[in-house]
Design goal:
Largest sheet: 3 strands, antiparallel
Shape: globular
Oligomer: single chain
Order of helices and strands: HHHHHEEEHHH
Radius of gyration: 16 Å
Bound molecules: manganese (II) ion
Strand content: 5-15%
Length: 201
C-alpha cells in the first residue's frame, strides 16, 4: 500500500500574489512528488510499507536517512498545503486565538516568535506551531524533520508548519526569506489550524 501524493486543495495560482504559481507547481509536482516516490522506493517490500507516517516517526531514529528525510517530506508537505488557502491570513479567533494570546501575549508576539523561528533556521527546515503537553509552543526543525519524530529537539503535535527551504520561495523572493515569511502570513488557513488544535487535544 504505497504512499500517494495528496491532492493539492487549490490551484497552483490560488495563493497569488503571496506565493507564485511557478513555485507552487514545482514545489508540489516535483519536490513533494519526489519525497513520495523516494519514500515508496525505500520501504518497498518492508514492514514499514504498511505503517502510518505517525508510527514511523515514533521510532524514526532506527530508520536510515532516506526514510527519515522522505517520510518527513511527505508528512510536512501534506500539512503545509492544508494550512494555507486563498484569501487566508488575518488573525485566528475562538479557542485558537485565545490560546495564542495566553501563550505568547498577543497575536503580534506570536507572529514575531514564529517568524523568527523560520528566519533563524540555518539552511533548510521548518518552523512549527505545536501542541506539546496541552500547551502551544513554537519551534523549528532542520531538513525534513518534524516534532513528531523521536529525534526532534522539540516534540509535540504540529498544527501549523512553514517550509523555509529555499525551494519554497527562491523563484519569487530569491534570498529574502523574511519576505516569504511575511507573505506566508497572508495565506494561513486558520480554520484548518484550529481544527488541528482540536484534534490534538
Ligand atoms: Mn518544501
Amino acid at each position: 500500500m504505497a504512499f500517494t501524493l495528496n491532492k493539492l486543495p487549490y490551484d497552483y495560482k490560488a495563493l497569488e500574489p503571496h506565493i507564485d504559481a511557478m513555485t507552487m507547481e514545482i514545489h508540489y509536482s516535483k519536490h513533494h512528488q519526489a519525497y513520495v516516490t523516494n519514500l515508496n522506493n525505500a520501504i518497498a517490500g518492508k514492514p514499514e510499507d504498511s505503517m502510518s507516517l505517525e508510527d514511523l516517526f515514533k521510532n524514526i531514529s532506527k530508520q536510515p536517512p532516506v526514510v527519515r528525510n522522505n517520510a518527513g517530506g511527505v508528512y510536512n508537505h501534506n500539512l503545509y498545503w492544508d494550512v494555507m488557502k486563498p484569501n487566508g491570513g488575518g488573525e485566528p479567533t475562538g479557542k485558537l486565538g485565545d490560546a495564542i494570546k495566553s501563550t505568547f501575549g498577543s497575536f503580534a508576539d506570536f507572529k514575531t516568535n514564529f517568524s523568527n523561528a523560520g528566519a533563524t533556521r540555518f539552511g533548510s527546515g521548518w518552523a512549527w506551531l505545536c501542541v506539546s503537553g496541552g500547551k502551544l509552543a513554537v519551534c523549528s526543525t532542520p531538513n525534513q524533520d518534524n516534532p513528531l519524530m523521536d529525534v526532534s529537539e522539540c516534540k509535540g503535535t504540529p498544527i501549523l508548519g512553514m517550509d523555509v527551504w529555499e525551494h519554497a520561495y527562491y523563484l519569487k523572493c530569491q534570498n529574502r526569506r523574511p519576505e516569504y515569511i511575511t507573505n506566508f502570513f497572508n495565506v494561513i488557513n486558520w480554520d484548518e489550524v484550529a481544527k488541528r488544535l482540536d484534534n490534538a487535544k
